[in-house]
Amino acid sequence: EVQLVESGGDLVKPGGSLRLSCAASGLTFTDAWMTWVRQAPGKGLEWVGLIRSKYDGGTADYAAPVKGRFTISREDARNMVYLQMNSLKTEDTAVYFCTKDVPFTGGGAIAFWGQGTLVTVSS
Amino acid sequence: DIVMTQSPDALAVSLGERATINCKSSQSVLYSSNNKNYLAWYQQKAGQPPRLLIYWASTRESGVPDRFSGSGSGTDFTLTVSSLQAEDVAVYYCQQYYTTPHTFGQGTQLEIK
After folding, report:
1. List of chain B residues with pLDDT < 70
2. Rg (chain B; Cα; Å)
3. What is the rounded average pLDDT for all residues in chain A?
4. Distances from the Cα of A110 to the Cα of A10, A17, A91, B16, B86, angstroms
5. Average pLDDT for residues A81-101, to the nearest whole number?
6. Most exposed of A59, B30, B65, B99 (fewest Cβ within 10 Å)?
7. Mutate to test the interface with A, among B102, B103, B108 (most CBs of A within 10 A)
8. What is the mean pLDDT of residues A93-122?
9. Of the candidates A81, A74, A71, which has an alpha carbon nearest to the alpha carbon of residue A6?
């Protein structure tokens, strides 16, 4: 059974930084494309970014609102994926979900979701 | 970026009746080389992460009741709940994964009339 467990959410001031972690189990992590999705309180889902498997290049893509501020990385030896968030803004306040796709959908159709971790950006 | 627009924003349907949610993409999400539409549907109940219902526009995820079906191609897609049950009250989202960013629709709230 695939399990994704996020951690690291916290209250942070505007301009601050935070790193979220996601521990994955029950899957062949080295093959996995991992995606972060966020949801602001009472709002819809927003795709944040994904990281490809090392076999597929290990590169990451980002949504425009976070590009240049957020960085996704992975540590295959520990089945971990990270979201480094810098220069945080109040509009980054959201629950952040770590997710995994249905195989062969290019990180697309998201079959597995963590429970999410809350990031609050406020002074 | 591909913009996904759902309609309606909210929908109230009687128990046992059909519910239909539409999703339109600003450009085609049909990949011609494999004839697949890169479109997924999700259900999100209050306080829970989303659940994948449909991918490739019409492939039902394992464990999803067969009253849920997806259809459409290119830029226009539909999620149909053939006979609404009380447990189907939720927000439904479409998402394209044709190209990054993998954008979501704004969501459709489905309620019981």
Report:
1. none
2. 13
3. 96
4. 25, 27, 24, 28, 25
5. 98
6. A59
7. B102
8. 94
9. A81
* CB–CB contact A106 B42 (8 Å): no
pLDDT value of position B84 = 98
Question: In a 10 Å sphere around its CB, with 0-12 CB exposed, 13-18 middle and 19+ buried, how is residue A10 labelled?
Answer: middle
Amino acid at A49: G
Sheet with B19-25, strands from edge to edge, namely: B4-7, B19-25, B76-81, B68-73
Task: State how far the Cα of B75 lies from the Cα of A1, in Å rounded to an integer.
Answer: 34
Judge whether B6 and B106 are in contact, CB under 8 Å: yes
Question: What token pair was written down for A73?
Answer: 């990385």
Give the pair of three-digit tokens for residue A16.
């601050």
Chain B closest-CA separation from residue A103 CA (Å): 11
B101 CA: distance to closest CA in chain A (Å)? 6
Assess contact for B10 and B112: CB atoms under 8 A.
no
Tens of pLDDT, residues A6-42: 999 999 999 999 999 999 999 999 999 999 999 999 9
Chain B residue at shortest CA distance from A100 = B52
Does any CB of chain A come closer than 8 Å to the CB of residue B42? yes
Task: Quote the DSSP letter at residue A3.
Answer: E
Query: Which of A43, A47, A59, A70 to mutate to test binding with chain B, by most B CBs within 10 Å of its CB?
Result: A47
d(CA B19, CA A32): 35
